[in-house]
Amino acid sequence: MTDNFAARLETTAQEVAAALEALLSETVLDGEIARPGYLLAAMRHGVLNGGKRLRPFLVVETARLLGAPELAARRVAAALECIHCYSLIHDDLPSMDDDDLRRGQPTVHVAFDEATAILAGDALLTLAFDILSSPETDLPADAKLRLVNQLARASGIGGMVGGQSLDLDAERVAPDEAGIVKLQAMKTGALLRYACAAGAIAAGADDQVLARMTRFGEIIGLAFQLADDLLDVTSDAATLGKAAGKDAGRGKGTLVSLHGVAAARQRLDGLVEEAAELLEPFGGKAETLRQAAGFIASREH
Ligand code: IPE
Ligand code: IPE
Ligand code: MG
Ligand code: MG
Ligand code: MG
Q1: Does ligand 2 lie within 6 Å of residue 272's CB atom?
Q2: How far is CA 202 from the centre of its chain?
């Protein structure tokens, strides 16, 4: 990771955190009646707690590469991070992965209570669509509509939530390799794919460029979950800020459990190369995104 890349990652994380901080303020918006304090505190706990903000980074960097307006891109990034944080709050619930630790802190249902954690997730899900559709997201109406529609599809039954459902099935009946790839493409891949597609949509990119960036996002998505599964085996809770060794503990089939650590690392290298090839037409301008692929694959938490 070069210093320049690290600085950019950090700056974007701070800018998106500032946007999220403002969006999760006590200010009651036009059309809202009140913002209950306990629920707002739970939402803030689940969002403003030092995530890596990788999905926002991919939105912002794709948008920058293709010339989308910076402020609007940041709002799209914040919307996506709301969906991601909601997915983590629900993923950690006792009825799902039953985790106590997230981003080095107590999970939302531990710090608050289970019902509030469910509601915090629900409210973050709808907040994402508020952010995208709001007049303050200054993009052409057709781009906004497409961003809303694609985020719904990436998040719902055909995307993240559907993938979480397949993930639950996988604890009962071990899927084959194709099944694992599909569930991962959905539970994690869909939001990362959206991150890259959204930057292109915000920039008004043509279909060819959009398809290329969408494919780049798919590859990044595969690499991301493969790295997550590797870290689950090779790292520890102190480094990860969340429990380790969970997948084997729950008998969850992953590509790592199927092929072993060495083969998984090799596959990761292949994915990073594939991602870099997709960026070739953009030349040096895409250097940050190229490095992002490498970072996602070799991250330590
Ligand atoms: C973790 O995502 C959950 C998965 C989808 C595997 P991240 O590793 O991006 O988590 P944060 O946002 O940095 O906490
Ligand atoms: C979570 O996958 C995916 C989503 C939240 C959609 P994991 O269950 O593997 O994520 P961690 O390991 O708890 O972060
Ligand atoms: Mg899970
Ligand atoms: Mg989990
Ligand atoms: Mg995991």
Answers
A1: no
A2: 18
Q: How far is the CA of 165 from the centre of ligand 5 (A)?
A: 15
- pLDDT by residue for the chain (301 residues), tens only, comes to 788 999 999 999 999 999 999 999 999 999 999 999 999 999 999 999 889 999 999 999 999 999 999 999 999 999 999 999 999 999 999 999 999 999 999 999 999 999 999 999 999 999 999 999 999 999 999 999 999 999 999 999 999 999 999 999 998 898 999 999 999 999 999 999 999 999 999 999 999 999 999 999 999 999 999 999 999 999 999 999 998 998 888 888 888 988 999 999 999 999 999 999 999 999 999 999 999 999 999 888 8
Nearest protein CA to atom 3 of ligand 1, as residue: 88
Nearest bound ligand to CA 87?
2
Given the CA of residue 247, which atom of ligand 2 is nearest to it?
9
Pocket test for ligand 1, best of 228, 233, 246, 252 (most atoms within 8 A of CB): 228
| pTM score over 0.90 | yes
Q: How many whole angstroms from 111 Cα to the centroid of ligand 2?
A: 19
Answer yes or no: is the C-beta of 107 below 6 A from any ligand 2 atom.
Answer: no
Our answer on whether the CB atom of 155 is closer than 6 Å to any ligand 1 atom is no
